[in-house]
Design brief:
alpha/beta; 13 strands; 24% strand; globular
Length: 300
């Protein structure tokens, strides 16, 4: 199972508080730590932990965070030949998490915005054997557009996780095999608040499959032929960071194993749920065994 991920790599600075601050308010944090993150890297590490052969294409600064993040990707057995080092500081995120596991996130893109069309061209040889290529929107949109068009022309299957949400050109949708918005992102992309209407709007734009993550309500997958619902898994959530990234990676892993969409959503929902039970982004990503155990418990 070979997957390529083109996207962001960040260092997350996590502040744990009893409640999220109000406008203009200063709070003292109960705990602080740094954890490797970034949507692209989260998805790459999640896929690697679930058994895939993963190549990461992205950028890091020539700084301490960059050194730590590169080392971590290598430890997780992600191929980092496609990760450049630039003079721009490494991307980072400031994450505030309350006692209920809800969060606010502020991201500085940094070196992630040095991922250019030329860098994708230079590293195309690294994705020749990839069955799927995953994108997010924490690198420049022009680079994402170019990468999807270039790789689709080479016959690659494309998953786009449209986060952070932004308006996409209509010409991009027909090139996307699976798009995975949450409800907020779906509303922004489609221009309507109703989930069913929003899904249909994206299908009309040409996307092959729309998979919507619904948080505690599970998920749904819709194409022109059918709608498949994925049941949620009850866990004690303490931090929702990277739950969506884990879902995306797990969904592809299951589909690459030729699982039905029902089983793929179950696997992805279980993996995403497990990611909420530990603090941090990549520190919370589950293994295949952990996911299988949760699925078995859910069947009892």
């Amino acid at each position: 199972m070979k997957i390529a991920v083109i996207g962001s790599i960040n260092m997350d600075m996590i502040f744990q508080v009893k409640r999220l601050p109000q406008k203009g308010e200063t709070l003292l944090a109960d705990h602080y730590r740094t954890v490797p993150g970034g949507k692209g890297a989260n998805q790459a590490v999640a896929a690697a932990r679930l058994g895939a052969d993963v190549t990461m294409i992205g950028a890091l600064g020539k700084d301490g965070f960059g050194d730590q993040l590169m080392e971590h990707l290598n430890i997780e057995k992600v191929n980092t030949e496609g990760v450049m080092r630039t003079e721009t500081p490494s991307g980072n995120a400031s994450i505030t998490i309350d006692k209920e596991g809800h969060n606010t996130i502020m991201v500085y893109p940094g070196a992630n915005y040095d991922v250019t069309e030329k860098w994708i061209d230079d590293k195309l040889y690294l994705v020749e054997d990839a069955e799927w290529v995953m994108f997010q929107l924490e690198t420049p949109l022009l680079t994402v557009e170019y990468g999807i068009k270039r790789l689709k022309a080479l016959g690659k299957r494309i998953l786009l996780n449209p986060a952070p949400a932004q308006i996409l050109p209509d010409s991009l949708y027909p090139l996307i095999d699976i798009i995975t918005p949450n409800e907020t992102e779906l509303s922004l992309l489609s221009g309507v608040e109703n989930t069913d209407m929003g899904v249909q709007a994206l299908l009309k734009k040409g996307v092959n499959q729309v998979v919507v993550t619904l948080g505690e309500k599970g998920s749904i997958a819709v194409n022109e032929d059918k709608t498949t619902k994925g049941k949620p898994f009850a866990v004690h959530a303490i931090d929702t960071t990277a739950a969506g990234d884990t879902f995306n990676a797990a969904l592809l892993i299951a589909l690459m194993k030729e699982k039905s969409m029902t089983d793929a959503l179950s696997f992805a929902n279980a993996a995403g749920a497990l990611a909420t039970t530990k603090m941090g982004a990549q520190s919370s990503l589950p293994t295949d065994l952990e996911v299988q155990e949760l699925i078995k418990k859910g069947m009892k």
